[in-house]
Amino acid sequence: MPINNCQYTLLVITSSFRDPEKILKTLREADFMLLEASNQQEAIQRIRTTSPDLILLDIDKSVRQENTILQDFKTNKITGAIPVLFITSMTSENHIPECLNYDNIDFITKPFRPQELVIRVQHQLSLLRAERVIRRQNEKLKKSLEARDKLYSIIAHDLRAPIGTIKMINSSIEAQKAKIKDPQISKLFEMINETTEEAFNLLENLLRWTRNQNGKTKIYATLFNLTPVARQVVSLFSAIANAKEIELINRIEGKFDIFADEDMIKTVLRNLISNAIKYTEQGKITLSLYPTTRNGVTYTEIKVSDTGYGISAEALPHVFDRYYQESGKHQASGTGIGLALVRNLVELHEGEIRVESIQNEGSTFYISLLTDNIYPNALHGDSTKQTEEEMISEAVPEDSQNTEPETSKPILLIVEDNEDIQKYIAESFSDSFEVITGSNGEEGKQQALNRIPDIIVSDIMMPVMDGITLCRQLKEDVRTSHIPVILLTAKDSLQDKEEGYEVGADSYLTKPFSASLLRSRINNLLDSRKKLIAQFQQTGTSHNPNSHLDEKRSIITEALSKLDNEFIEKITQLVEDNLSSEKIDITYLSDKMCMSGSTLYRKMKALTGLSTNEYIRKVKMQNTERILLEGKYNISEIAYKIGMNSTGYFRQCFKDEFGVSPSDYLKQFTSPTPPPSS
Questions:
Q1: pLDDT for 87-132, tens place per residue?
Q2: How far is CA 313 from each of CA 317, 319, 326, 338, 575, rounded to the nearest angstrom?
Q3: What's the confidence (pLDDT) of residue 412?
Q4: Which domains are present in the chain?
């Protein structure tokens, strides 16, 4: 298709030509749009404002000077992409400028005919037009792929919630499996579990794939033993393999410590075994782990082999291409991203993957991972990760949470837009908690402010206000900053969770989860808070004259947020500044703290285990100890100084705090020390 000359603009550097008018006349007659520049600086200024399609100059006038100009044009970020056509009388290869090494440069030798110049310019512009067309097509293709990946992500995320709910319900039923007497029902239940797990794995692949394509995936490297991880994956597929009468062999012996992203390696193993099961009608599938050393470098080798249909020679080079599926009678269902994802994750680990296959005999996939790779550009974590079973076993039994009966159940706030998950959690905890709910972050915030719950469980992805924003706003509000928050997320990468921890989240759970695991997290958080309160409430003893409130407050200083510490400090200061005043009560403090009496009460209870009035009394008693040890005042004067008109009531409060009367307490420090026994 011939080009339309008038659609293109040429920049002519006139100072380089002996007779610029001749060149300009030739190009004008050919209907080109022309710009003129007398020197390089002017040319760059022209380019900044008009973006010409081609630059034209002569290099015969001053070879060195103009050659330098060429180099400057091609190395300049403003002008480097613009094609350059120069005219020269030099025909020897030794005299052709080095700038020909750059892209989009051509030349015409003298003498030349005007028509030759026009044709050569048109040729360069044709190449430019083709490049622009290809670039637009690539951009269009890129957007199309991004749209497809985004659609996959949306679909996967939307489906993840209901399937995750089914998994959670299944886990609850699993705990009651022994009660199922009918073998047929038990078998059907196993099939539901298998199908749900397969669907969930597929969705996990889609979500992880889209994150990888968007460049959002980073390795979170920890040192872990690959052996139990591999065995767990094999166990996951054992029922599915048995249903197809395939022998699933685990050839894993010994311990394989490896520094890598555990979740990614699980995904790799899961996809390789799932793929093998899809393409194996009968026979066996074997997973092997073994160490190798090449050129003094230690590798951990993963090998997955099957006796399935095998891969044709034509398809073998494409098995790791995204969306590729071999056609034919053995074509399996799926998205075609499983093996592409595997390769992607292996390459993120700087590892190698290859496949060998013979049709009708089977395939073998080999993965080589550097055993001691430190991944300097990755995120790094410790090696203390626990399994769900370990966390549940360590959970404190509910009966041990309280040594004294509570007047009411603790309040659990669930913020979740998925009604099924919300209902599942609510029903699972209604026995031990007063459950209140919100369907989005805004509703959750209002519920938190109105009721001041003991703990909050919130989803992250919600309409109106997401869980991250909700957590941040609650942790920045002194009325709610003390409340533990557990975030629920469909995201499984730890770098995604960092955002939640940065805004003050106390824990994370990845969907789907079991009610028992959530209960263990809740119990552990509440138990930690109660242990803190127990330490705070320990009274001074007759053997420790330095047991002041400042020391007790230091117990919680490191465990609480800055905002909660400031809250305790302000409350304490208000009481100490008004020791002798009788007006110090919950009404006075709530007014000074700009919160309701009920909110102040629940926050004080949560932080110290004491009611507001109990805390006031505790502060007064701790100051009494200091005044008493100074020895300047009698009991009645001290009682007056701390705002107690009744000496009898003062004595009782002191004894409640320190275990002895004020006079007996003082005797401990005035009595002579008995001589040492012989």
A1: 877 655 555 555 566 667 788 888 888 888 888 888 888 888 888 8
A2: 8, 11, 11, 20, 83
A3: 95
A4: 5-112 (3.40.50.2300), 218-374 (3.30.565.10), 407-535 (3.40.50.2300), 538-670 (1.10.10.60)
